[in-house]
């Protein structure tokens, strides 16, 4: 399978329904990092608020009608849940989404709002897939995997494909890692356009299975992923890991404090609402874990994967101050 060619073909299909998300820059960020230019791809402005819409559309729209009519099912902590729910509504399909009990309440409500039935499950890493399989056995639903599916990987890759076709060439590309669908597709797209690009994966130190797997050369499951980056708590996939091994140049980890600092920079200096998972890539650039010589006077790409954060506590605090 020529995945780069598939990404190009998928972009033609996806661009008919997905948003062409903006690219933003910050002189302050350039100054802080010493980069020639930091270029940020804002998938927080994608439909449903994350890049996940791309993979969900590419996957579901290619499923034969007879399979779709059985109903589709996915398991997700939130962003893929919302994407599948919206795609199903557009295509007039029944969608069931398995979500963990500790999923962000706003993501659960948004998934229901897009028209899906939500089934809650336990919070352990394997609970979602287990509950989804139970429902598949009972109702014969068609599974849409959030990252370990070639069509989903290809769809996710259109994020970098769109970025790199809208700007001058870049030297480094920072991408968040959860299950690995985004970085798998983006690494193929980036290197397909310019093999010189170095792709840097970033994940939370508290959910560092991809980092450890990359170092050991074999998949290591995530253990107790206690991170605010809820979209990155899952283990890297069977399909995505070999792609990561082949196309990703380095994986680094960031602390919870560094993730929060990156979110704060986006909010305060760029007026961008970015969720923790989406801010991980910028946290990687700012972490000091990359040789400064690779950044100085270079063009750096940053992918914001999403912006779906629950602001209930923030606004509740403001209201308390008015009381």
Can you walk through the features of this model?
This protein is globular. Helices cover 45% and strands 15% of the residues. The protein folds into 2 domains: 3-50 and 153-304, 3-Layer(aba) Sandwich (Rossmann fold), CATH 3.40.50; 53-143, 3-Layer(aba) Sandwich (Rossmann fold), CATH 3.40.50.1100. The chain is of the alpha/beta class. Helix 1 packs across helix 9 (181-193) and helix 8 (150-164) crosses helix 9 (181-193).
Draw up the topology in text.
Blueprint: H1 3-14, E1 23-25, H2 27-33, E2 37-42, H3 52-60, H4 65-68, E3 72-75, H5 79-90, E4 95-100, H6 105-113, E5 117-121, H7 127-139, E6 142-143, H8 150-164, E7 172-176, H9 181-193, E8 198-204, H10 209-216, H11 240-247, E9 250-254, H12 256-269, H13 276-286, E10 299-304, H14 312-322
Helix pairs in contact: 1-8, 1-9, 3-5, 3-8, 5-6, 8-9, 9-11, 12-13
Which descriptors apply to this entry?
single chain, Rossmann fold, 323 residues, 14 helices, 6-stranded mixed beta sheet, 4-stranded parallel beta sheet, alpha/beta, 45% helix
Known CATH architecture of the largest domain: 3-Layer(aba) Sandwich
CATH class of the largest domain: Alpha Beta
Number of strands: 10
Shape: globular
Spans of at least 5 consecutive residues whose pLDDT stays below 50 are none
Looking at CATH, which topology of the largest domain would you report? Answer: Rossmann fold
